[in-house]
Amino acid sequence: MAIETTAAGGNAADVVCVASWNADLISHVARPIARGETLMARSFSISPGGKGSNAAVAAARQGACVALIARIGDDDFGRMGMDLWNAEGIATDHVERAVGERSGVAQILVYEDGDNSIAVYPGAGAGLGARHAQAATPLLTHCRVVMASCEVPVEATLQAFRLARQGHAITVLNPAPARPLPEELLALVDVLTPNESELFDLAGPGCAGSIDAAAMQLLARGTRSVLVTLGAAGCRLYQSGQAPVDLAGRTMPVADTIGAGDTFTGTLAAALARGESLPAAMQWANAAAALSVTRHGAISGIPTQAEVAALLG
Q1: In this predicted model, what pLDDT tens digit does every residue of 220-248 receive, in sequence order?
Q2: Distance (Å, rounded) from C-alpha 298 to C-alpha 304?
């Protein structure tokens, strides 16, 4: 295995992302495709993607000093990732380049209403593990926020969050795609950011479609706060012993919704890292996600801190 680094790295960062990386292969089609059907696409593009990478770029564009823990392939898509992170000023000292392995890809169908369907192959990212987090111990114990998603192996996130807790960093987990999570990991999460369907998947069938009941169940299992994203309806924050906090969505012209959740998570992490309260950070994240849907693609849709501040102002 080879390790690629940049000179900007070291063990100092505001936000550390345990990151997934893939290239997005995006086709625009009129509608969802039925089983066995072939449908002509009106356009196709290849662009940077991966929930972790997207969130890291979002945090960097919000002014945070960001570092990655990731594993990529030794291929053109891997080089695409390195070029992106270097351009965004993101430290890659703890990005492992796996010789002879392919980087991940996401096949994305975008529909005319802006919604999408995604199939992800993790590639070299599937080999990310606890050893990668352990190797980044000084980074994880001296930062302000550590974030991850369920696109990376749970062992890597679990070890990273253990180390983050030792250093008193805030941990943010975007549980997408939803899957069963160990109780130890849930107890190490300071802010969980599911969408509505992911919330119900995590809480299980006993909540009977109640967002409140599902969020309270996750709080009872040890998660310190649950911040549910509700698409155009905004978001809702749950914390133990406090009434839920609702934040309305913003009416925006929708180009596509690719990367909106990642923009939300990365912006939230950056705001928390600079000392914003969780309700205030939620406002920044909500506004950034609203801006992101007005542009095509994950990376091109991520706004800057000045753009979010202007919308909030």
Answers
A1: 999 999 999 998 899 999 999 999 999 99
A2: 13
Q: What is the CA radius of gyration of the chain?
A: 18
Residue-level pLDDT at 255: 85
d(CA 217, CA 175): 15
Instruction: Give percent of the chain above pLDDT 90.
Output: 85
**Strand, helix or coil for residue 274:** coil
Per-residue pLDDT tens over the stretch 255-291: 888 889 999 999 999 999 999 999 999 999 999 999 9
Spell out the domains of the chain, with CATH numbers in brackets. Answer: 9-31+43-312 (3.40.1190.20)
Amino acid in position 214: A
Q: Is the pLDDT of residue 305 over 80?
A: yes
Q: Are 191 and 173 in contact (CB under 8 A)?
A: yes
At residue 218, the 3 state secondary structure works out as helix
For 143, the token pair is 């930062």
Q: How many CB atoms lie within 10 A of CB 300?
A: 13
Identify any residues that bridge with 23 across adjacent strands, giving them in sequence order: 48, 105
Residues recognised as catalytic: 262
Walk across the sheet containing 103-110 and list its strands. 43-49, 22-28, 103-110, 116-123
Q: Where are the beta strands (DSSP E) in the chain?
A: 2-4, 15-18, 22-28, 43-49, 66-73, 91-98, 103-110, 116-123, 145-149, 170-174, 191-192, 225-229, 235-239, 245-247
